[in-house]
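Thread: Newbie trying to understand structure tokens

Hi all, I'm a second-year student working on a class project, and my supervisor (Dr. K.) asked me to get a predicted structure for one chain before our next meeting. I've only ever worked with sequences, so writing a 3D structure as a token string is new to me. If someone could post the tokens and maybe explain what I'm looking at, I'd be very grateful. Here's the chain:
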Amino acid sequence: MNIKISKNAGFCFGVKRAMKMAWNEVVSGEDDIYALGPLIHNKQAVAKYEEKGLKTVAEVSDVPYNKNMIIRSHGVAEKVYKDSLIKDINIIDTTCPFVKKIHDIANEYYINGYKIIVIGDAKHPEVIGINGWCNDSAIVINSMEEFNNIKLDNSLRYCVVAQTTINSVLYNEIKDALKANLNDVVFNDTICSATKTRQQAARDLSKEVECMIVIGGKHSSNTQKLVKVCEEYVPTFAIETKDEIDKDEILKYSEVGITAGASTPDWIIEDVIDYLKSL
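---
Reply by user tm_fold:
Sure, no problem. This is what the structure looks like when written as tokens:
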């Protein structure tokens, strides 16, 4: 078996930065540390932090007064900051700078009278956070089917932003449709450059191998998009850890490619590689 690793696999800049900041807090041992939602969409990595005492909560109301709270890299709505201030909560803000830029764009254009459109998954925490910077009034579009079901008003001015991990092909398709139907629209291509590079690298590698293994959390948006990219070319196996590899199935292939989502730690990737080599 020949194993090829994608040039861009594992933690992206934003996740690496967030996880380092969070780790520094949990190992300080100074006080209780709370995380507003799972740090990343990788339960194995989150478990390591929780073993050190990190407490994961769903709402600001779950955090006691005067405690420390980590805002994860996905970012949150403006209301979270206001609610935290009321409870005198100390915020450790690990919001990815690329995501924070989208917050600023959405908020600025909303204040100036624009209707915000977010191209992305309405249920994803990043998109929920972005929407929270325009009073939860954004139109969220995640497919051409959804585009065909929305009503656009050409008496309004529109500002378009994209979820950082959205598939670039889908983004361009929806962008072209919006451009053809709106008179006054400003587009902001806010797809993370690391996302584009990662997807292209996975696409290129898929053309060189007989199958692909995509490592990452089942709930990780960017990981699932990598799966879809690879599936266009070869049989693709989505796993969280080496324990999910079907030995009999993978041994059918002599050329195996590996990529991993932006929230997949290096040690999980290395475990997978070592297991495959052992075969």
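A couple of things are worth pointing out once you decode it. The two ends are 8 Å apart (CA to CA). The CA atoms of residues 6 and 150 lie 38 Å apart. Feel free to ask follow-ups in this thread.
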